[in-house]
Design goal:
Radius of gyration of chain A: 23 Å
Number of helices of chain A: 20
CATH architecture of the largest domain in chain A: Orthogonal Bundle
CATH class of the largest domain in chain A: Mainly Alpha
Structural class of chain A: mainly alpha
Shape of chain A: globular
Number of strands of chain A: 3
Number of domains of chain A: 2
Oligomer: homodimer
Largest sheet of chain A: 3 strands, mixed
Strand order of the largest sheet of chain A: 1-3-2
């Protein structure tokens, strides 16, 4: 078995993984409503075949026969991914993997019921089982190392809880203070009126193109939850519309365009190989968030968007571009992570990061989770959680067993802060460009500096190379304090 | 390996085959236009994995270990399919299969170029190669038997060229005579006007529901070519619109609803097993054609459709239901199989059936194909072929290597004739029901008599059991001569 033979095998696996993504898109957009059970079986078959390919004992023999040192840098990077994925797949006992898959399905259902009934106790037995299984998984993968760190590798290779904790520890007090100061000031005036949903979709597609999304290799549809799916030449996004809240549609679209542009922007030579996808959740989120926030919610771009919205909708209840900028960037009290603004969002994530590490480490029993959540929330946000669906039952992640996923949201924001600092150096007149609706300079730099590399480097290495310095939380904090200090007259 | 283990393996293979169908639908309806090459690689990976599963040597060991005699009738039928498919897959040498796949892609492209340039000679070298490869394939599959019959089994298990020849030989002279007599009479008046395409799609969806298509387990979209795709709970159809020819949209829709209803109507207990699809191309076509023609183009149903079209479009250029019925069933001179009416359609098919047997048997050299086609066409239709795209370059099938496919079109019409005779006995007032737009009696009988059985019986056996007699061409001939004799006052 040569390296080329191995890569041919790998291409087939990658192609099948793309097919699984296509099925997921289909399910959320166009699948007949009565096809759910059959689709579960179809996706189960693809997952089982992928698992069998990834744990095929012959793969171990092939890997043993290849001398990485003889390969070029791209080949070495491919082998790094293939060896890591194989080690992970084979370390996890098959019966544990099956038990987690079964529990995920049951726990998800139980979580949905508990959330609807505002009944935490109904969910806890399944959560307890899931925490126990994920601890076992982490222990199997950790090979003697830290259990939570082992889980984290699925989402952010190379990251450690200790490293994230240092970063996030510096963020929290300044975000708590900024949040309180802003909410102490009068809230800006919001939009008024009802916004035709077809017109929202037209503007959303125009925004997608403006941010560089290649519509010949993608498409924009409506779905319950916005998402991006696929790699290479077939990267599709979804968005949603609400007649009372056009910003939800527009900023969901720009966010997903960030994810999709990353996948579309990877060097085509890496297509259908382990290098052909975004390298980590954190780097992925850095792209979606810098598109959405540092660029999309900037004074420069909102000035342009204000005009487009007036063209599309007429009177929107705010009458000048400064007021529109303030409306786009309003802080509001609230309990829900996914609805939070740039300042408060990370406080939601930090809460979950701390609690999930305590759960996995056994420092927090699931029976005390609600109390721990609520007291932490009150400490950071200044008011109480009124019901579980606004508290510890609000997110799907833990029911799905996604321990280690949450911190990548804030890591993405930290990376976006670093990248914006570097982008400002590289494209000094980015504000003038965005004010004219021209994103090509900004997104072009991101493509060249980050996106095109795919999985060539380790996640933190991609960001460090793009920025010319090691990533830290400082640029994000400076950006937020400056932007919201000015907006709220602090 | 027990029978249950084998069936679990088989379910996974069937699920993956369904996934391949889903990709095909996606490609023809919603795929981004720049995703073609990547999709080819995705579909190639799924095909390669399916092929590996179907030829897995362990499958042979498992089959050897199972005692069919100990199984119930459904289990015996499953084993019949699995053993037949395995024998076929393993008899075909891997390098021949790969060479055919390669040649198919090249020949298809060459055919499209030749057709566009009206240049038969440009296509002939690729056709010659394809005929040669399919002869080799047939010889490998035939295991000493007839080569063409071996190819035919892919589309119509149990059929023989000799059996079809006897049936078709009885059809041809009477169809030639009926065609000539009808075209000797004045042509009925056609529709007039332009027909809004969105209104066509609304009426097409209504027709689909009227014919019993379950929209909760399917969907109707537009595509260049109408098709039906999928089995069980996810069976999707496409149709097309032409502002000048609404019948194309409506009867394409009803035709595909016939195919789709067959797949939707199979006993759910057979889902994701070898019994869970339509049993042959001929039986499939019997459903699409009886829906489209014997039912959809009947005087009773067209009376109801006439009212719906007037509601949707206002003045359509014909003013009473009898004239509308005549317009639906007009014979026109023409060269193209897919545009032909009920009478002439089978003459197109018989021509291809005779020529393709001669090609495979070596009685006809590809260099003489055009001449053979044109002289046969003149004999049956009474006028000359004016250009190759109206003659031997009009169909895609031979470039794809689909030798043995054509006769199933006419076999489907023959079966539809038999089934209509039986349906008339079982649902004596079907005409009154259809005149009221009620298809439930007719389609319900077809579901119970044919569709629900899936692959349980052999194709001819399904039809014979449904009809209570062995299938023959007589009912189709009687139906056509009676219907068109009355319409054309013969």
């Amino acid at each position: 078995m040569s390296f080329d033979d191995l890569m041919a095998h790998e291409r087939q696996t990658q192609a099948l993984a793309q097919v699984a993504g296509r099925l997921g898109w289909d399910q959320e957009t166009v699948m007949p409503r009565g096809a759910g059970n059959q689709r579960a079986e179809e996706m189960g078959a693809v997952a089982a075949i992928l698992h069998a390919r990834r744990t095929d004992p012959r793969l171990g023999e092939w890997l043993a026969a290849i001398d990485d040192a003889a390969l070029d840098p791209v080949g070495k990077a491919q082998m790094r991914h293939i060896r890591r994925d194989y080690a992970r797949a084979t370390r996890l006992p098959a019966d544990l993997a099956a038990e987690i898959a079964r529990t995920r399905s049951l726990a998800h259902q139980r979580w949905a019921e508990a959330r609807a009934a505002e009944d935490v106790a109904h969910f806890l037995p399944m959560l307890e089982k899931m925490v126990d299984l994920k601890r076992q998984e982490g222990a199997a993968l950790a090979d003697g190392g830290d259990v939570y760190d082992a889980l984290l590798q699925d989402y952010e290779p190379g990251a450690t809880a200790a490293g994230l904790e240092a970063m996030f520890g510096a963020l929290r007090p300044r975000l708590v203070a900024l949040r309180a100061a802003c909410l102490d000031r009068p809230a800006p005036k919001g939009l008024e009126g009802r916004f035709d949903e077809a017109a929202q979709m037209r503007l959303a597609r125009m925004l997608a193109k403006t941010f560089g999304y290649d519509m010949a290799r993608g498409r924009v549809d409506k779905a319950v939850h916005p998402f991006s799916s696929g790699s290479g030449d077939d990267v599709r996004i979804t968005t949603r519309t609400n007649p009372e809240d056009p910003f939800n549609c527009f900023y969901s679209t720009i966010h997903e365009v960030g994810h999709a542009s990353y996948e579309q922007g990877i060097d085509p030579a890496y297509a259908m190989t382990p290098l052909g996808q975004g390298v980590s959740m954190g780097v992925h989120e850095s792209q979606s968030r810098i598109y959405e926030n540092q660029l999309g919610r900037s004074r420069a771009f909102t000035g342009w968007l204000f005009e487009r919205m007036r063209e599309a909708f007429g009177d929107i209840g705010v009458t000048d571009a400064d007021a529109f900028y303030a409306a786009v960037n309003t802080l509001q009290p609230g309990h829900i992570r996914t609805e939070a603004d740039e300042v408060q969002y990370n406080l939601h994530v930090l809460l979950r990061f701390d609690l999930e590490r305590d759960l996995i480490a056994g420092r927090l029993d699931v029976s005390n989770l609600e109390e721990a959540w609520n007291s932490r929330f009150a400490a950071d946000f200044g008011y109480a959680v009124d019901k579980p669906s606004n508290g510890c039952l609000q997110d799907v992640h833990w029911s799905e067993g996604l321990f280690g996923y949450f911190p990548t949201y804030t890591l993405g924001n930290v990376y976006a802060g670093c990248l914006m600092k570097a982008l400002t150096r590289a494209v000094p007149d980015w504000e003038a460009q965005l004010a004219a609706g021209d994103l090509a300079g900004a997104t072009g730099w991101l493509r060249a500096a980050v996106q095109r590399h795919g999985g060539l480097m380790e996640p933190r290495e991609v960001i460090a190379q793009a920025c010319g310095e090691e990533p830290s939380e400082a640029p994000l904090l400076e950006y937020l304090e400056q932007k919201f200090g000015a907006l709220y007259g602090l």
